[in-house]
Amino acid sequence: MPSLGETMEWGILTAYLVEEGKAFSSGDNLYEVENEKTTLSVEALTDGVLARWVGPLDEQLSVGTLIAVVAEPGQDFSKSDVDDLIKSYLPPSSGTEASETFTSGQHSTDTKPKSKIRAMPKARSLAAELGIELSEISGTGKGGAITLQDVENLATPRNDASSTLPFERVRLSTTHRTMAERLSNSWPVTPHFTVSNLVDASQL
User: Fold this and answer.
1) Per residue, what are the HEC states of 127-194?
2) Each residue's pLDDT tens digit in the chain (204 positions)?
3) Number of domains within the chain
4) Do 92 and 120 sit in the same domain of this protein?
């Protein structure tokens, strides 16, 4: 994951623009990245071949995270070569998980691994009590973490579906989520004062 700004610490892959096994040229758009400010297309700096996508779509990835394996034009490579390269790049503690996740060459965007879903402890407990999968909940907390309110909001329509109108939960873009976080955070830290004026308007 490249750093696309001085303050960028993470990004979200939103689209692969080159298929695995396909060649690309310098200047071609390779993928799209969404951060807290905008969505950008990232261009190739040199010619190459996209050997394999590694970074999953729609998940928050830290700057520096391996997102793809690229080969030089005309370079011969096998599936095992790519697997070995990925294993050598990833931390030893994630070796088993990385092998299971990345050697298949398949990427699923429908569900997120439970281990990567950020949620408050109370939110996890309530979701487990109500039988709600965390992958079904859109987090509104900092960094997309699931809060207790998020679980309660999802549980309410289920418990009283007859008294509510149909609705659809829409995932906020990173930009809108950041705007909401900053607006809500500014209220408790911004000084507040009240000015009152007493006016005799009896003759109006």
Assistant:
1) HHHHCCCHHHCCCCCHHHCECHHHHHHHHHHHHCHHHCCCCCCCCCCHHHHHHHHHHHHHHHHCCCCC
2) 888 877 788 888 888 998 988 999 999 999 998 887 778 889 999 999 998 998 888 888 888 888 989 988 888 888 888 888 888 876 654 444 444 444 444 444 444 444 468 887 788 888 888 888 888 888 888 778 888 888 888 876 655 554 556 777 777 777 777 777 778 777 777 787 888 888 888 887
3) 2
4) no
Closest alpha carbon to 121 in 142, 147, 101: 147
Which residues have C-beta within 8 Å of that of residue 73, sequence separation ≥ 6?
23, 47, 48, 49
Q: Which two tokens stand for residue 140?
A: 């509104």
Rg of the chain (C-alpha set): 23
- In DSSP terms, 65 is beta-bridged to none
Residue 91 lies in a domain: yes
- The verdict on 125 and 78 lying in the same domain is no
Of the candidates 122, 178, 176, 180, the residue with the CA atom closest to the CA atom of residue 151 = 122
Where does residue 105 fall: left (phi above 0), alpha (psi -120 to 50 degrees), or beta otherwise? Answer: left
Which of 102, 131, 146 is where one domain is finished? Answer: 102
Task: Tell me if 10 sits within 8 A of 60, measured CB to CB.
Answer: yes
This prediction has a pTM of 0.46
How far apart are the C-alpha atoms of 142 and 125, rounded to whole Å?
A: 19
Residue type, 22: K
